[in-house]
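QA checklist item 7 of 12: single-chain prediction sanity check.
[x] sequence parsed
[x] length recorded as 130
[x] structure emitted
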Amino acid sequence: MTAGRDTGNRSFEHRQLAEHLRFAAGASAAAGARHTEIRLTCLEDVCRPVVDRIRGDLAALPGVTVIEDPDRTTGRGYYTSMCFKVRAAVDSQYTEVGDGGFVDWSRLLTGNRKERLLISGYGVDRLAGL
């Protein structure tokens, strides 16, 4: 979980999402995954530039593929702006190991529209099962 304030140009969202996804890719690799698939879903048009920057940021990570998942149905109404799923594979059989996205909890608690909160969760048992 990472909380902070929007400083303009969606820089908080970009910086923190990239950090969460780098962690996910590293954790998958440390658990033995040879391939990690990060599925990004943009829930609002304003997040499109962030998705494009994230794809560029993660392109250099070995064994990591970033794809867009506009048809994702889970998490809509729960996550705001964008969300993701992380899938990992040792061979060609992918297992979902993580999920996350932006939520409005801190914004609602503080009444400040600039507040941002990114949450993510990983199934340690699923990582261990790889």
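[x] summary fact logged: DSSP finds four helices and six strands in the chain.
[ ] second reviewer sign-off
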